[in-house]
Amino acid sequence: MKEPLRYLANAKETLNRSPIEDNIYTDSKYVKSACGIAYLGVLKAVDECLLKKGITAKELPKKVEEYDKALKKYISVHNGKLQKQFNVLYDELHIAGYYRGLIRDVDALKAIFKSAKGFIEKIKQ
Fold first, then answer.
1. C-alpha separations of 115 from 19, 58, 108, 118 in Å
2. Would you tell me how many other CB atoms lie within 10 Å of the CB of residue 97?
3. Beta-strand runs (E) in 12-92
């Protein structure tokens, strides 16, 4: 699981490029990019886990709904919290952070990135 954590490290480097004023990241370009990169790290972790479970690269999910189904079928059987956490990370990183650019608070982004790292570490077990 080195690759997903590398994505997360790259996301943090990207986020650090944004200036901070009053505990708010001021450059939305870097914030949105960082959230997108972090979310790709989450997807990469799920992909790696599915590959270990016998799914072929061709069968890997392409859409978030397919990821949700794959998590339910292959991974959440053992830990239902992972599917919920995946859905929260999708909403926070991909939708609110990357797509809409709504999250700019430094503490909020640190917490979301910490959650993403926790998800990646849990899913590799």
1. 23, 29, 11, 5
2. 28
3. 20-21, 24-25
Distances (CA, A) of 3 to 6, 29, 69, 90: 5, 23, 23, 19
Helix axes 106-123, 80-89, angle to 10 degrees: 140
Q: Residue 25 has what DSSP assignment?
A: E
Tokens in use for 99?
A: 């797509």
Q: Can you tell me the distance from the alpha carbon of 3 to that of 16, in angstroms, rounded to the nearest whole number?
A: 20
Length of the chain: 125
Encode the chain (125 residues) as per-residue pLDDT tens digits.
699 999 999 999 999 999 999 999 999 999 999 999 999 999 999 999 999 999 999 999 999 999 999 998 888 766 678 889 999 999 999 999 999 999 999 999 999 999 999 999 999 87
